[in-house]
Structure formats: structure tokens, C-alpha cells
Amino acid sequence: MNPARPHATHVAVRDGRILGAGALEELAGWGAYRLDRRFAGKVLMPGLVEGHSHVMEGSLWAYVYCGFFDRMDPEGRVWAGLKSIDAVVERLAEAAAALEDPAAPLAGWSLDAIYYGGRRVNRHDLDRVSTGRAVGVLNASGHILNVNTKALELAGMMRTGVHPPGIPLGL
Q: What is the pTM assigned to this prediction?
């Protein structure tokens, strides 16, 4: 859980509370101890008590980061924040060019249009990434998905007469 110390062989516990994690030599200074090998060779994860956790972010890194702010991925790489819609399109286009299958969908995440001067991302922006593959970008809130025309076509949303409430298709 600490990128500066990604590996520990021992955990020091006193009265049910974790005092530290590291090598036995580092932890022996906490006082008298006995070794408990119940979890030898296992991975221990810290408990999480939080009412609104976004634990899904770990899996989102399999997709293209499209956020406004710089962000570090699980491997320690810092991804520069994207300060314009053009920058979002550029990063997605680079990722699309790296895909071997020309029909494979492309997904991005953490888009937040509030930073783009009131301009909303629309399907035409994402059509600049690709017209041959579905492209979608999840909003930073996790509640809005912007997609390109190809994705709308695949979902049957571009047929004449289709006007679902709450889904602005005209942009």
C-alpha cells in the first residue's frame, strides 16, 4: 500500500492494532514478540472503513486516463492531466492507434467537462478519435458516459425516430 515500501515480510501487532510492517529486524524494536505464521506466504490487505469509496479506480487503469489533473497510476507513472477537449481526443487517438483490432472498442475514464469552459464533450469530438470503432469515456463522477457515433449506432440509438428521454443524440 506504500509505493516506497511495496513489500514486507512481517507485521507487528500489539493489542489487535498494527504497529508496523517490514522486515523482522526492523520490527523487533517494538519489544518482546512471538512469531505467528498463520499468514506466512499470504497477502494482507489493510481494512477499509469509508462510506463512499471509489475502489473501482484500480480496474479503470486498464483504460485510457482522460482526467483534467495529473494522476499517478498503480505502477507509479504520472499521467499528465488533459487541459482541453483536443488533448482528450489526442490521447484517445494515440490509444486507438495502438490497438491491433480496428473494430475493438476504446474506453477512457475520468473526463470532467466542468474544466473546459462550459463546453461539453459530444459524439463529434469522439468521432475525431475513430469512426470505425466504438469510443466511450466515463465521466469523473462515474454517472455519465460520452460515446461516439459508432457506439450509438451499435446500440441502435441512431435509427430514425429514436429519441430516448435524457439522451441528447443531436450533438
A: 0.67
